[in-house]
Amino acid sequence: MKRYFIHLAYNGAHYCGWQVQPQSPSVQAELERCLSLKLGQPISVTGCGRTDTGVHARNYYAHFDFEGEIKDCHDLAYRLNMFLPPDIVVYRIWEVTPELHARFDAVSRTYHYYITQTKNPFHQEDAYYYYGELDVAKMQQAADILFEYTDFTSFSKLHTQVKTNNCKIMEARWFEKDGLLVFRIKADRFLRNMVRAIVGTLLEVGKGKMSLDEFRKTIERQDRCSAGESVPAHALFLEEVAYPEQA
User: Fold this and answer.
1) Torsion over CA of 25, 29, 30 and 33, rounded to 10 degrees?
2) For the segment 96-121, what is each residue's pLDDT rounded down to a tens digit?
3) What's the CA gap between 3 and 24, in Å, rounded?
């Protein structure tokens, strides 16, 4: 039994997310279907994490085990891309040690959330259109407060089955790129809906509807109802996933 890693990307607009869900299309289901057909045996794929319905991934990693040897990984990637839907692409497949795990060995994940403040027909599917003034400097001050905490229950989807709501934030900053306002956040792990809830709450600060002290208290209450609304999923991208150098 050999283990292989896959580097892929996908547009999540037409999927319920990465993970297989009953009666709903998922990226994982499409990848497993195509791999099983091409390799001639049932293939189960383990991803580096879940993404919510409608969320995209520019860089995503997964692994699968195969009873045999893939002699030409480059050719397999090419054949998979011919068979996969146009909104999923496989960049690379390569053999790894049997112990390497796409999810548990990832040391960080980085998301970008894109906001446009002017109506733009070319960004209606990949950026959130917000009309109005935003105090970006104050939003950055609020983002800096995230580093003071590890429990982000206030930004987690309710009734999720996780052992802990603790995450280590490594980066949280606002910047402008190509006319868009971008929020970049990096952490060792993320809770379900966490990034979209954080951005929604930071926007409340930017609109002047929440003070920095109220933002801090929102985190400390550990209550999702005290945070802002989640922003739409279509503007959220999983940008990077990092692994130890030896991987």
Assistant:
1) -140
2) 999 999 999 999 999 999 999 999 89
3) 28
Q: Residue 195 is part of which domain span?
A: 108-242
Q: Which of 52, 151, 178, 223 is labelled catalytic?
A: 52
User: Does residue 163 lie within any of the structural domains?
Assistant: yes
Gap between the Cα atoms of 205 and 172, Å rounded: 15
CB atoms within 10 A of CB 171: 13
Q: Judge if 49 and 75 occupy the same domain.
A: yes
pLDDT at 31 over 70: yes
List all residues 6 or more positions away from 42 whose beta carbon is below 8 Å from its beta carbon: 36
Q: Report d(CA 90, CA 161) in Å as an integer.
A: 30
Indicate the pTM of the whole model.
0.94
Residue 198 lies in a domain: yes
Structural domain count of the chain: 2
- Token pair 């112990």 is at which residue? 99
Say which amino acid occupies 243: Y
Q: Is 151 domain-assigned?
A: yes
The answer to the question of residue 247 being in a domain is no
87 annotated active-site: no
